[in-house]
């Protein structure tokens, strides 16, 4: 480890100790050496002992900087790994950090675009509109020479030299994660290395802004002309790995409930549309915005009686296949029908758990965990909590939770919290059930059959004229195959006869020469009998042909 890395490592450990994060270390023979090193190398005490552990952890991550903040944000979604008090605190982490110099931002943008900003834009504001851990944004306007003359834009640029910092922090995270399973048996349950791997993948996706551009374009196309969701236009000619240019939008932050009410927004419809947008992305498009926290969602101030969401920052998305959607739809429908056996059987049928899973035990485990949820009114039941409970039970029966489902649970958590903040009486089940039931109806029964036939019509219409010819050709092929099979059977039969004859003749030879070898030592009657037997055996061998 280099000196710089040692200093960085020392800073991280010191910060954790100042906030007393080391108190979670179990007291056993594995951690005893670590405690000794802590006293020898770090003369630091917990300076925040009066604060709850979750709060201390959040403050420590905030102090360590952007990469650790984003790790905390990701960990806040893993409620299958952390208790609610810690997860709730981590969810409060905000990555609003001090912006870097606007002149440096201009240089970065001009270097990426290949010329002076004046070539395309006017009114470039060197004061950042917003600044986050990975990138910051500046405003500008297309100049009169451009196709979109007069259009206001937002230019997003990565922080300079962010990659070396990320590499250094990730390296240390892996080292710390590698130690966790050695500290106690509970450490294995956390699967720390897998968590860091998942985090690294998400982080590296965010480091290529072209990914965000592609995601935004796809989401925009999926909701083009939709009254429910608007995604700003991306100007792809100006998009590069470290710089993207997009339409500037004006809206009311969705977290500003007071401003929304003053604007006369239909809060009930707005809350319902949040749920509808989410389930539309999941079950219609199989592609959903997976970072829909309040900082990335605005509301169009126009037409407050017909409110429309505006979604930005599409760097993190989730993708689902039919198996994922079946898992979600059938799980939720069966859960709300209290059909726990169906929930259990569906996990096995979908391949999420092994085929030899004990269905009775699986059903009972789901019932024990999920039944207490129905103590609440149906309208107050949390979809995200239901999904979490399903994950936790299924994991005990060897289900490996997929990253896309964890992303979905995180997004669902955001949507639920947002919907009930906007309209506390929101009935999530009543709003979501039509999407779930409609999707299931499309996959099963006559509607599914008709849909599949429609999909296959182009193929059928193309191949139908050739069907008689292909049928006759198929019969000829079948006749040829049957003839070849008969010839093969005859050949095998002959080979088997030769094998039998050779075996019988060999036995006869053994008996004959064995008798001659011991002729003088055997009684005359026995010798004669054996010689006659060898003759009979030879005759049988010959007759087998």
TrEMBL record:
<comment type="function">
    <text>Is probably a protein kinase regulator of UbiI activity which is involved in aerobic coenzyme Q (ubiquinone) biosynthesis.</text>
</comment>
<keyword id="KW-0418">Kinase</keyword>
<comment type="pathway">
    <text>Cofactor biosynthesis; ubiquinone biosynthesis [regulation].</text>
</comment>
<keyword id="KW-0547">Nucleotide-binding</keyword>
<feature type="active site" description="Proton acceptor">
    <location>
        <position position="291"/>
    </location>
</feature>
<dbReference type="InterPro" id="IPR050154">
    <property type="entry name" value="UbiB_kinase"/>
</dbReference>
<dbReference type="Pfam" id="PF03109">
    <property type="entry name" value="ABC1"/>
</dbReference>
<keyword id="KW-0472">Membrane</keyword>
<dbReference type="InterPro" id="IPR045308">
    <property type="entry name" value="UbiB_bact"/>
</dbReference>
<keyword id="KW-0067">ATP-binding</keyword>
<dbReference type="InterPro" id="IPR010232">
    <property type="entry name" value="UbiB"/>
</dbReference>
<protein>
    <recommendedName>
        <fullName>Probable protein kinase UbiB</fullName>
        <ecNumber>2.7.-.-</ecNumber>
    </recommendedName>
</protein>
<keyword id="KW-0831">Ubiquinone biosynthesis</keyword>
<keyword id="KW-0808">Transferase</keyword>
<dbReference type="InterPro" id="IPR004147">
    <property type="entry name" value="ABC1_dom"/>
</dbReference>
<keyword id="KW-0830">Ubiquinone</keyword>
<keyword id="KW-1003">Cell membrane</keyword>
<feature type="binding site">
    <location>
        <position position="156"/>
    </location>
    <ligand>
        <name>ATP</name>
    </ligand>
</feature>
<feature type="domain" description="ABC1 atypical kinase-like">
    <location>
        <begin position="93"/>
        <end position="347"/>
    </location>
</feature>
<keyword id="KW-1133">Transmembrane helix</keyword>
<keyword id="KW-0997">Cell inner membrane</keyword>
<comment type="similarity">
    <text>Belongs to the protein kinase superfamily. ADCK protein kinase family.</text>
</comment>
<comment type="similarity">
    <text>Belongs to the ABC1 family. UbiB subfamily.</text>
</comment>
<dbReference type="InterPro" id="IPR011009">
    <property type="entry name" value="Kinase-like_dom_sf"/>
</dbReference>
<feature type="binding site">
    <location>
        <begin position="129"/>
        <end position="137"/>
    </location>
    <ligand>
        <name>ATP</name>
    </ligand>
</feature>
<feature type="transmembrane region" description="Helical">
    <location>
        <begin position="502"/>
        <end position="519"/>
    </location>
</feature>
<feature type="transmembrane region" description="Helical">
    <location>
        <begin position="525"/>
        <end position="544"/>
    </location>
</feature>
<keyword id="KW-0812">Transmembrane</keyword>
């Amino acid at each position: 480890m280099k000196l710089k890395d040692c200093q960085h490592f020392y800073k991280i450990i010191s910060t954790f100790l100042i906030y007393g994060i080391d108190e979670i270390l179990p007291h056993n023979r594995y951690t005893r050496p670590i405690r000794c090193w802590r006293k020898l190398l770090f003369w630091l005490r917990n300076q925040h002992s009066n604060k709850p552990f979750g709060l201390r952890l959040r403050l420590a991550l905030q102090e360590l900087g952007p990469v650790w903040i984003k790790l905390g944000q990701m960990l806040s979604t893993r409620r299958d790994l952390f208790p609610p008090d810690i997860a709730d605190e981590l969810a409060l982490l905000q990555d609003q950090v001090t912006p870097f110099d606007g002149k440096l931002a201009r240089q970065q943008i001009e270097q990426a675009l290949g010329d002076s900003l004046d070539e395309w834009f006017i009114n470039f504001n060197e004061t950042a509109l917003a600044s986050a851990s990975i990138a910051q944004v500046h405003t500008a306007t297309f100049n009169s020479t451009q196709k979109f003359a007069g259009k206001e834009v937002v230019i997003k640029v990565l922080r300079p030299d962010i990659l070396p910092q990320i590499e250094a922090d990730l390296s240390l995270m892996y080292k710390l994660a590698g130690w966790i399973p050695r500290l106690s048996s509970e450490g294995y349950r956390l699967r720390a290395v897998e968590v860091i791997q998942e985090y690294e993948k998400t982080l590296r996706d965010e480091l290529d802004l072209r990914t965000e551009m592609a995601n935004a374009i796809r989401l925009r196309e999926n909701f083009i002309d939709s009254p429910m969701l608007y995604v700003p236009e991306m100007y792809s000619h100006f998009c590069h790995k470290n710089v993207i240019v997009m339409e500037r939008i004006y809206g009311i932050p969705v977290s500003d409930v007071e401003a929304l009410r003053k604007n006369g927004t239909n809060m009930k419809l707005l809350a319902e549309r949040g749920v509808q947008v989410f389930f539309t992305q999941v079950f219609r498009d199989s592609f959903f915005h997976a970072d829909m926290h309040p900082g990335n969602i605005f509301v169009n101030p126009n037409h407050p009686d017909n409110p429309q969401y505006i979604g930005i920052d599409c760097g993190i998305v989730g993708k689902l296949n039919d198996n994922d959607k079946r898992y979600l739809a059938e799980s939720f429908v069966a859960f709300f029908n209290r059909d726990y056996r169906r929930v259990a059987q569906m996990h096995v049928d979908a391949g999420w758990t092994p085929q030899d899973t004990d269905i009775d035990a699986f059903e009972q485990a789901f019932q024990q965990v999920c039944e207490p949820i129905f103590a609440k009114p149906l309208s107050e039941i949390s979809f995200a909590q239901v999904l979490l409970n399903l994950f936790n039970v299924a994991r005990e029966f060897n289900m490996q939770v997929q990253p896309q489902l964890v992303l979905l649970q995180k997004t669902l958590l955001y949507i639920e919290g947002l919907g009930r903040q906007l309209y506390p009486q929101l009935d999530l089940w009543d709003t979501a059930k039509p999407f779930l039931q409609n999707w299931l109806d499309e996959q099963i029964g006559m509607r599914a059959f008709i849909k599949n036939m429609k999909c296959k019509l182009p193929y059928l219409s193309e191949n139908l004229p050739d069907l008689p010819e292909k049928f006759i050709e198929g019969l000829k092929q079948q006749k040829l195959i049957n003839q070849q099979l008969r010839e093969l059977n005859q050949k095998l039969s002959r080979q088997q006869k030769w094998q039998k004859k050779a075996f019988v003749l060999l036995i006869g030879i053994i008996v004959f020469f064995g008798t001659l070898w011991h002729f003088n030592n055997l009684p005359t009657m026995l010798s004669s009998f054996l010689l006659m037997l060898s003759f009979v055996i030879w005759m049988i061998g010959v007759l087998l042909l």
